[in-house]
Amino acid sequence: MRVLLVEDDRMIAQGLETALRQDGYAVDVMRDGRSAAEALRNARFDIVLLDLGLPERDGLEVLRDLRSRADPTPVIIVTARDDVPNRIAGLDAGADDYIVKPFDLDEVGARMRSVLRRAAGRGDPCIHHGDITLNPVTHTVERAGVPVALSAHEFSVLEALLQRPGAVLSRAQLEDRLYGWSGQIESNAVEVYVHGLRRKLGSESIRTLRGVGYYVPK
Amino acid sequence: MNSIRARLLVALLALVTVISLLAGTLTYRRVLAETSLLFDYQLRQMALSLRSQVSMAPRLELPPDQADADFVIQIWDLYGKRVYLSRAGLPLIDQTTLGYADVRIAGERWRTYGLQTLDGVIQIAQPVRVREALAGGAALRVVLPLLLLLPLLGAATVGVVRSGLLPLRRVAAEVQRRDAHSLTPIPAAQLPSEVAPLVLELNRLLVRLHGAFQAQRAFIADAAHELRSPLTAVRLELQLLDRAPDAAARLTARQNLGAAVERAIHLLEQLLTLARQEPREEPAALAPVPLEAAVAEGMADAHALALVRHIDLSLDAQPGVMVQGEHAALRTLVRNLIDNAVRYTPPGGSVRVSSTQGPRGAVLEVCDSGPGIPVVDRERAFDRFYRRVSAPEGGSGLGLAIVKAIADRHGARISLADAVPSGLRVTVLFPPPA
Hints:
The structure holds 2 protein chains of 2 kinds.
Chain A: E1 2-6, H1 10-22, E2 26-30, H2 33-42, E3 47-50, H3 59-68, E4 75-79, H4 84-92, E5 97-100, H5 105-119, E6 127-129, E7 132-135, E8 140-143, E9 146-148, H6 152-163, H7 171-179, H8 189-201, E10 207-209, E11 213-215
Parallel strand pairs in A: 1-2, 1-3, 3-4, 4-5
Antiparallel strand pairs in A: 6-7, 7-8, 8-9, 10-11
Chain B: H1 4-56, H2 64-68, E1 72-77, E2 82-85, E3 99-105, E4 108-117, E5 120-127, H3 128-177, H4 196-243, H5 247-277, E6 287-290, H6 291-308, E7 312-317, E8 322-325, H7 327-344, E9 350-358, E10 361-368, H8 399-409, E11 413-418, E12 424-429
Parallel strand pairs in B: 7-9
Antiparallel strand pairs in B: 1-2, 1-5, 3-4, 4-5, 6-8, 9-10, 10-12, 11-12
Helix pairs in contact in B: 1-3, 4-5, 5-8, 6-7, 7-8
């Protein structure tokens, strides 16, 4: 899962980034509105955490810009502006949720999962596919009711692929989801994770479209 | 008695009473004077008419009603013997003066007229009391209607005064409706010219009050808003500390938590400093203080940060420069200016402070070798919580706002300019001591 964190306060950005990484998200941090808008134009994120009071360009402008391109990327506004008119303006501009500072980390996590679930068109927090069940809250995977131990990166790859069964994700896309732009990538890391997943979930669980990428069959 | 209405009522009613009495007295005097003339004329006419009768018939008979009249007639013959007296039993006037005379007999004043005839003397006498009674009656007839009209006049006065004071009561009701939340001006249209200036001044006060309240509210809103960020950081780091997976993460979170708390404390202190410098009801008494002392102390306050950041801090203070001010506030001003310069200047840079006596008052200057402030941003630099993108961590965004507030209180002017060869030059120009 790749997160764009737009926050101008360095302390808060750093803390949130650490927390999100601990939760297994790949995090990119932008500290002003202009570079955030640029990042959103150039890359795909699974979810955006957006502060409103930003230098250069206001967060609301960034959000409107995104929605004007019919980009459905889920956006959660995380801001100190707590008054009702601002909340309404934020939600009406296309935000999926609105969190007021100072927030609780666990709540941010829960809201992110809820927004991601809705974006994937699911009400059930767990993703079911064949005999595989993935629970994004507890970070657990079961196969035919039996728990399967996965590493954090294996889990992220599986989660990304299960979100849209049948859709092909390239190695680069998966790497972005795993590390963001800033992480160090080992050249064959994705192959290693896919291999591990196949070993634990069955060789047919993830298929390769040669030269393009990986997918889970529908 | 502090009511305009009561005062007006008493004054007007007293005036009406005094005028009535004055009119009565004057009328009495006038009537008395005029009747005196008439009565004198009548006395003379009576005497003249009696002269012809007496010469024919010494035993004169007068009509009975005339005997009851307020006249006493006496006639003497040539030998001085009284031959006629109109009414017996009265104290007699024995001596006779020819012509008019005022006589007093047994406590009673009389007006007499004596006339010499061929065979004696005729005297007609009339009590002055009769004349006065007549005049008194006339005066009473003038005053009485006035006195009877007095209650009516009073009622009319009450009405006039009440309607005259109506605009004041309307204004009072309008003022009563105002509070901290509705400070709209009082409608001043159609107010009498006596009340209009009051309302005008009141409206000016309301506008000032409104502005002050607005500023207060904005300040509190800003402060609450700005406190969210450091507190968010505190809570975040606390939760990260709780969930840290290993010792290294715990140590990082612990350090970050400390920094976040320090930042919250710094912001709080700066907020309090600014709140203390904001205009208050009673302006602090400014006294002549040596500028160099405040500069030296403010510099000592900022010294630690300069050491940490490896900034070369230097001072050039001209001795004996005095400013009209408050020592503690000036020290805060200097500390914030240096603090700001030190924070923005990259490590290894320099900050130079100087205080001199200029031709138009004392001058304080702080020059740094930092990035400076672009001309377009200079005006906003004094706004509360204004921070540029390049602002260093840990600042409150209040430093220059505090400096501005203190400078304003001292009537000093601040200007931002480019330093030579680079950096920001802040100049504070104090007014000459009065």
